[in-house]
Design a protein that fits this description.
184 residues; 47% helix; mainly alpha; 6 helices; single chain
Length: 184
Amino acid sequence: MFCPRCGQQQATDSMRFCSRCGFLMEGTMHLLANGGLLPQYPASPEQKGPSPRRKGVKQGAILMLIGAILVPILGVMSGFAPGRLENVFAFFAALAAIICFLGGPLRMLFAGIFEEGAPQPRYMTPISYSPQMMAGPQARVALPPAAANQVPSWRQPHTAEILQPPSVTDGTTRLLDKKESEIE
């Protein structure tokens, strides 16, 4: 894919931004996927609350939270209860621990695997406009036409044609070789 702003070819089609100019490429991907049309989501009146999967995960988390509160309370009550009542509170504390700390994660696991999530939005194209109807078969051209001014072909120069620039240190080195009387 090429960036529509600067023409830079992108390394992958999943790039979010152009590597040269920083242009946001996500909208471009949606346009190319839908033939130049912006996606439109249908209004879904039946979807008014959270999905069954989300409800199940929430129920499991609430069950674990209730267990984190209820089990210590029942444990403290069994410690202060007299006689037979101590065994009853201990039994209910153990039962609450099993139900809450085992049932909560199992409920979340069941909801995550088996229950249906939120429906994925589908793209709808408007019926009133179609690029093929408006522009004909040339609507799918991805790149602009070739430039009218062609660049002349580049030729590699012969190394014999390149002149070496004179060295800056040549003149000062020659001065060292001369006698002091010749310099003045």
